[in-house]
Amino acid sequence: MRRKGFAEVMLWQLERGGATPLYRQIQQQLRDAVLSRALRPGARLPSTRELASRLGVARSCVIAAYSELLVEGVLSGRVGSGTYVSSDLPEPIEKAARRRSQRAGSTRRFSVPARARALEALAADAQDETRPFQTGRSLVDARTVEVWRRLTQRALRELGPRHLGYTDPRGLPELRRTLCEYLKAARAVRCEPEQILVTSGTQHALDLAIRVLLEPGDEVWVEDPGYPMTVAALHAAGIRPRPVPVDAHGLVVRAGLRTAPRARAVYVTPSHQYPLGRVLSTARRLELLAFARETGAFVLEDDYDSEFRYSGRPLPSLQGLDDAQRVLYVGTLNKVLFPGLRVGYVVVPEPLVRAFTAARHLMDRQPQSLLQVVLADFMEQGHFSGHVRRMRLQYRDQRDALVLELTRRAGEHVRVEAPEQGMRLVAELPCGSRDLELEAAALRAGVIARALSSFYHKAEARQGLLLGFTGYPRAAISAAVATLSRVIADALGARRARSAAAQG
Known about the structure:
alpha/beta; Arc Repressor Mutant, subunit A; Aspartate Aminotransferase, domain 2; Aspartate Aminotransferase, domain 1; 3 domains; four-stranded antiparallel beta sheet; 45% helix
C-alpha cells in the first residue's frame, strides 16, 4: 500500500487574521499529524521556504513553528539534510492499548477508581439554585454593596508588595486581630489572634481539622439528623461517622457514649442544631466537654449562623466553656455577608496552631490577601455590625412572612413555629406523610422544599420540609407558599383517597 506523502497528509486549515497567530496554527497542526502518526517517524518535512510558499505565509511563520517543535522534540534537524519527524517518539497510547486489549480478547473500558466513584456518590446538590425556598440564601443591601465597592477600590489603589507575594498561611494579622475581637465580644470565644486561621468557609475548616486530627478508620460522632456535607467529608477521608440522636436538648451525649465510646472527635452545632434548630443545653455541653477531656477527643463546634438571632443576645459558644483546649470553633462569613465572599475561620487550641498552619500551607499556601484587607476594613470601620443589624431585621420580617403565609394557606396540613435564630425553618407534616414525595412534587412545581427525613441517618425520621426564608422578598414568599400549599394539599388528599379505597 502506497504511503501518503506530506501534501496528502497535511490538509491545512489556517485562520488568517484570527486570535491564534499563524505560526501557532502551523505548529499545532504539524504536532497533531505527528502524534496521530499521520506523519510517520523519520518522515522528511519540506524546507521552511517551500512550506511557506505552499501556505502563502511569511517564511518567518514556518521557521518559528519548526523551531518550537524542534525544542519539544517532535521534530529533529540534520545538518545539511533537512528537518525530519523525530524517530524516538513513543507509540500513541491509544493504539498500544488497543493492541493489548485485542491480545487479551477484550476491549477494556476506562476504569474509574473506587475513591473517585465514592466522591461522585457524595456530590452535593447545586447551591446556585435561586428559587424559594432554597436554604442559605443571603441578601446584601445597597449600603453594603456601596461600602464594599469603595473599600475594594481603595485597597486596589494602595496595592503594595504584601498583596503580590507570600503571606502568613493563617491569614493577614489585621483580619485575624479583628476576628478575634469580634468573637470575644459576640460569642464569648476564648482566643488570641495567633489561634485563628482564615479559611474559605466551614467546609474548608472541617477539612483542615480532619487532615490534622484524624486517621482513616477513626470514629466521629455526628448529629442525627445532621448536616450532610460534614458526613460526606468524613466518608471521603475514610473516617467512620457515628450518628448520635438529637432530642429537645440537643445531642444526646449518653447515646454517643453507648454508640462510640472511643470516638476521636465530635461534630456538633450547639447554638442552632442543623436542621432542627435545637440548642444544646448547658448540662449536655458540660457532659460533652467532660467526655472530650477524659478521652482526649476533640469537639468541632460549627457556629454557622449565630449572627441571626431574633430575640435576645446570641448564645455564648461551647468553646468559651472549654478549659482543656479540646474544642475547635468553626465559623463563616459567607452566610452573614454573601456566599461569593468565601471567607471563614477556625479557632484552634494553641498547641495545634503549628500543625494547622502547616496543613494550610500544604493545601493552598495562604488566603487571598486583597480580600482580607477589604474585609478587615469593613469590620474595623463598623460596617459589619451595621450590616448584621439591618439583615437581622429584614430576615426576621421574611421569617414572619413565611410563618404567616404557611399558617394561613397550609395550616390544616403543616405545623410551623417561628425559629428564634437562623435562616430557615421546619414545616412539620402530619403522621403518615412522605416528605420525599412532597419534595419531588414541589420541585416539579418550581418550589424547593427539602425533605427533613433525608437528614436522618439511623434515628427514626420525622416528616417535614426544610424551608429557607432569607434572600426572598415578601411577594416571592407569598407566591411560593401558595404553590407549595397546593402541592401539599394535593399530595395528602391523594394519599387519603388511596387509603380509603384500600380500606373499602
